[in-house]
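seq:
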Amino acid sequence: MSVSPNTQEIASPEFEQTRRDFLNSIFALLKSLSVHDIHNVALQRPFQNFEKALNELRHYAKEDGKVEMRYQDHLFILMGHKITNHFSVVEAMKVVGDAVEIAMIESLTFHKDLKREVIGEFFAKWALHNSVHQRPKELQAKIAGIDLVLMDPSKANLRLKTKQLLLSPQYALQHYFLLRKHTENYFEGITSQKLNSQKNLRRELMEMVEIARVAPYQLISLSLIREDPAKETSESAAVSQAIATCMLCIVLAKELNFSVREQVNLGLVGLLYNVGLLGNEAAAVLKNEKLTPVEYKRVLDAQTSGVYKLIRLQGSSRPVLERLLAIFEQSRGSDVKSVSLTLESRLVRLVSQYVALISDRPFRDAYTPSEAVKILGNKAVGPQARDNSGDLDPIIYYVFVRLMGVYPVGSLCLLSNGKKAIVFRPSGDKLGEPMIKVLPATEAERAELLDLAHHPDFKIVKTLDPKREGISIPGFFFD
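struct:
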């Protein structure tokens, strides 16, 4: 067997593609074995794909020809290199990741000269184990030629306890207010020409990423929180909207199966997106309903200069600054082509526009979430999209609507029976039929949670403006 290839060969696109093929082949085997018997003809193609990918990986292995796959911090590490996020492995990373956690697998090593019967026996036991157990339990499968390393049971039990804690709305609220406190301190430092450490911000963002892993709609609920209008200032409004952008960026990144590190980075991008608008000059311009071309350029320049200031003071990590720069790169002139406008930057652009629409402005009231989704849809896929090429990514828009719902989370609705309700989740037991909280008749009663899939007589007639109805939406998610 030849020695392992050099770094350039390992980093080649062919090696990247082979690792993705290997993960997809595991996904296909587990999926097929959850439905069919191991001898079913439907397993022939998945077995062939797995064997092909496994043999191709051996060309990159050391002399022993072993192929090792590890699962750490929700990332797959194959042959010592993580499998990066890619559209072709989004579903595989999610399904195989869940399968690994249920079976409590820390690493898998495949030896040379494995026969199909041995491979089939292992995957059949793994698929059966996952179909029987809904909670993490050690996979008992000692098979010659396949080394299986399981997680420490104490760590798994700790993870299970942590999951129960992460599902708590009160836990989410607690860390929301901690994040708000640290964001306020950071923004105050920027306005006073002092750059504070981002350590506390990143710690709380990591908590939010953990919450999103088990309860993503907790973060969407947090994104609805705004300051009391009687107490709100321009600074507190900026903090609320920054955190709302941050929350939705994390959830959408999680939906697209970004790594934990990328979710934290995108959350920080969401927080700092409008950092350049904290000055009094830009804030004064934004009070106008319609900006002149000169005023609009002043806003873009303020946003860009805020990012450049962070660079000069080394106030953030390179991945965060690269994404921020990609968003504002075009503000330097129409002749500058934004070649670095990445998927992550397009994501932040859509989310930030959604948050801006559902937030109050000096010249208008906030749009309802349903109205905001329609406005963004027109910009992403409607007639205006042709006039504003590249303004909003239509694919990310579709993912966003799938996540939020046609009647987005937090929408106040009028039901066919005359009662009012808040959309709690975009889908219950039936796709497209949301779960709602029916508003109580008196303050002494609690809102009733209903799944419209089980109440066909109830229909959403239209959406309402919560401000006009005198209803505070966030309180119904954390009661």
